[in-house]
Design brief:
The protein has 175 residues and is of the alpha+beta class. The protein has 2 domains: 42 residues; 116 residues, no CATH class.
């Protein structure tokens, strides 16, 4: 009788262990597929997860722009033109300088940011984040993931972009 009980206990322990392994595998699979799904939900067709700029509503400056892609690539844009010199509210960024691929879960930055629907006064936020799909988020210096990312790539968003001397669509050189 004791040998049967020991055998039943061993089988029970093995079954419990296998169940734990299966549940852990399902949890890992869910995390990996859900993370990828979140990235697809905010990324545009080119894989742009989001762009970050300094929120410059109260500043006479077009901010530099940092664009982060779903493959870990990021670009720094520091020059711009205007499609229409009369409308200076929407600058068009020109040149992009690629920064090495960064191994970082950039979606954590969004998770610690505030969606524009929950913001009463966006001028109280330091950073403006626009996803590839066009959703707008705001963040401050207390977003540890954004600060960690900027430190990792040794980058600051405090600078102003410069106006480039590209040719406008009208054919005349812009000043």
């Amino acid at each position: 009788m004791d040998k049967k009980r020991i055998k039943i206990r061993k089988i029970t322990l093995v079954a419990i262990g296998l169940t734990g392994v299966v549940l852990l595998s399902i949890l890992i699979w869910y995390f990996l597929t859900n993370h990828d799904r979140n990235a697809r939900n905010i990324a545009d067709a080119n894989g742009l997860l989001f762009s970050v700029v300094l929120n410059t509503k109260d500043r006479d400056c077009v901010p530099v722009k940092l664009s982060i892609y779903d493959d870990g690539k990021c670009e720094f844009k520091n020059s711009f033109t205007y499609a229409d010199e009369e409308d200076t509210s929407n600058p068009i960024y020109d040149d992009a300088y690629a920064i090495d691929h960064i191994d970082y879960d950039a979606l954590k930055i969004i998770s610690k940011s505030v969606h524009e629907d929950k913001v009463e006064d966006d001028s109280t936020y330091v950073y403006k984040i626009v996803t590839g799909k066009g959703d707008v988020y705001y963040a401050n210096d207390d977003n540890e993931y954004l600060m960690e990312y900027l430190n990792k790539i040794n980058f600051t968003l405090a600078d102003c972009a410069f106006k480039s001397n590209k040719w406008s669509s009208k054919g005349d050189k812009q000043e």
